[in-house]
Amino acid sequence: MKTPEELYKQRKEAFVSNLTGGSITEINLVTAIAPVTYIVFAILQSRLRLFASYGPAQIALDFILSCGAVLLATTLYSAQPILLNILALSPAVLIYLTTPKPASRVTKPKPVSKATKPNNAGTDDPLPKKAFITVYRGSMMVITCVAILAVDFHIFPRRFAKVENWGTSLMDLGVGSFVFSSGVVSARTVVKQHLATSGTNSVSFSVRMKTAMRSSLPLLVLGFVRLAMVKGVDYAEHVTEYGVHWNFFFTLGFLPPFVALLQSIPTGKANPTTIYVVLSLLVVGGYQIVLKTTELEEYVLIGDRHKYGILGMNKEGASSFAGYLAIFLAGMASGTYVLPRDPAANPKQSKMLKTMVGMALFWIVTFFGATEYWGLGIGISRRLANLPYFLWINAFNTAQLVGFYLIERLFLGKKQVQAADEKEAYTFAVPKVLHAFNRNGLAIFLVANLLTGLVNVSLKTLDTGRAASMGVLTAYMAVITAVALLLDYKDLNIKL
After folding, report:
1. What is the dihedral of CA 154, 11, 247, 146, to 10 degrees?
2. Whole-angstrom distance, CA of residue 258 vs CA of residue 303
């Protein structure tokens, strides 16, 4: 006879198994809360200068906008995302229509002497900090942190949890978006090298691989630590997610060396955006061909897990890695055009915006071509990380980047032009909570994983009511936000 603990573990595993997901339209409406709350922030900041100083009231309001709204969108308002977006936006629209613009006060730039001019990196940096990228990555991290614990409560709809085989869900989108956004910021090195060497491949393979291994090692260590902890406490596992031993940290850890390997391919002076788009398509295209022309797809979905030893036991993680590698490369492609300086003050004149819109349309059109009946008609599978999943992740994230860019430029752009320097403009345009989440994203993700484990071993989440569930989730996000803000206040960058 099974013990109560064993029975509860079975319930937990069944709670996240054999799910079919929901519609992409609903996912888009739920995740729209992130750009909507950024519009609210932008109006409050541009019209009322509400976050010009940052005290307890501003911290509380920032937390409500950046984290509380996401929590509501994925729980209490999960069935009414349009209503939540309207409720969030309405007061801001009223303020925008009734409050006159503050009087323009152009800050006189400080005189720069010849002796100090070379060190003025604030105006000469070809890769300045950009508010819309920080907000995009910070929002993605907030949604991820909310979902990884909320999924263990009944208040989080099952259609938002990871799909078993075929379909789409909010958490499926989150996993791919995490990898894509990591690729975006990883492109900094590529862009710097391209600008410094006029496109020639000057970094040796050995140096590139050593750098990649230094990035990989901490992530792989975290993967083994998580594996030991999960097995040590007999934690409920969804084995078909990645496999018996594999976890997301292993996927992240194996990415850098494979990217370094692909970067060793001679490309001459080709445009880096083109290079990484082509590389991503070659990787995912080759992988999709293998899935369809061999028995790999069937084996991953229904094959005997014990047939090929440890590789077979982790067939989902090993197979899907190719898809995540392609997503990472596509993220790097986006990084090559969103990270460099955009000299245009008017969005209509922005070459970068035209590239962003063009790439978003490219991924959207190819996504429909791969999934619709008039096209290839292939199903979406996060478990396989197949071609349609790759295209969905790219389409969503490139469209999000366009949306956040337009919000920043339309609502906050004028004030940024008047700012004394780029740091002032950036600070004005970014919610401090999202800045903190983005600054130490991987460390915050690790803290969220640890807290998720702590809550699950301390509380029977499946037996927790709605009010108690919201209390736990709110406290959990408050702790994570406090850690993020504390690290930012102490000016600490934790690199994993």
Report:
1. 10
2. 27
